[in-house]
Design a protein that fits this description.
The chain is α+β, with helices and mostly antiparallel strands. The protein contains 4 helices and 13 strands. Helix 1 packs antiparallel against helix 2. The N and C termini lie far apart (about 60 Å).
Length: about 270
């Protein structure tokens, strides 16, 4: 709209100048018209630039507001910032067998993932803050480091806190969309390493309903995850059901145990 207005104004200046011009003063009027057009073009450029900047700031502010409401719904920023370790144990099915997934996290970016089958750990992968490892049948080997490329871009255990960290993420409000059978706000979150994730926040609960990675430099990560059945664990509200969407069939994991700030130490990442 602003650009169309500026173009119309330029044409109007040209029309007026052509109508009012006298034969003996053609050169003088042409100079004045040219000056008017240059001045108007400068104003139009300024208006368009300002309008674009204001629109971008509005999108960022709205995105931050949505994520901050989610943080509040989970228990508040102070609580989430004070979570230094997090433990979850989830039940799921792999290759027809009932297994447990165990995750342990330590701020800022240490983490481990274990598969427990019939009471014993049959697989473990962990990141010690610098290097990632695999442990199979008790044998520890250096893992493919491509799987851990975005671990150096984490400052907090709870992802929502990192989303509003401008040194890590750039947020853009996309609009409203149905996701996971919920009316959601959609946000584009771009990590500084190039990873792009779409976040869908439930308009009613303010909690995350779906995340969708569309560009990821890290290997072997699920592209779409659905979040359901939020429950309270102490003061923390956390999803207890995650559905990892895949063309080969969805993987559902249900949390059976969760605690934070206890029973996790440095030795869990060695």
């Amino acid at each position: 709209m602003a650009f169309a207005y500026c173009v119309a104004k330029l044409k109007l200046f040209a029309l007026i100048s052509a109508t009012d011009a006298k034969p003996q003063n053609v050169m003088r009027h042409n100079i004045k018209t040219d000056q008017k057009m240059k001045f108007t073009t400068t104003i139009c450029t300024f208006v368009l630039s300002t309008t674009t900047l204001l629109a971008q700031n509005s999108q960022i502010n709205k995105s931050n507001e949505i994520v901050e409401k989610s943080i509040q719904a989970q228990g508040g920023k102070k609580l989430l910032e004070n979570i230094k370790t997090l433990y979850t144990k989830s039940e799921t099915v792999m290759d027809g067998r009932n297994v447990f997934w165990i995750t342990k996290e330590m701020e800022p970016n240490k983490g481990s993932f274990e598969i427990e089958y019939q009471g014993r750990i049959v697989y473990k992968s962990f990141y010690d803050g610098k290097i990632g490892y695999d442990v199979v049948n008790g044998q520890k080997t250096v893992a493919d480091q491509e799987q851990f490329k975005d671990k150096n871009y984490r400052n907090q255990i709870i992802n929502s806190l990192d989303y509003i960290d401008t040194s890590l993420y750039t947020l853009e409000f996309i609009g409203e969309e149905k996701a996971n059978n919920k009316d959601c706000y959609k946000i584009k979150a771009t990590l500084s390493n190039g990873k792009v994730t779409y976040l869908y926040y439930d308009k009613t609960s303010n909690l995350l309903a779906k995340s969708e990675v569309v560009k990821n430099p890290e290997k072997n990560s699920f592209s779409t995850v659905l979040y359901d059945d939020y429950k309270k664990f102490g003061d923390l509200t956390y999803e207890t059901k995650q559905t990892f969407v895949s063309e080969d069939g969805n993987q559902v994991a249900k949390i059976v145990d969760l605690y934070y700030n206890k029973k996790i130490s440095e030795k869990d990442f060695k």
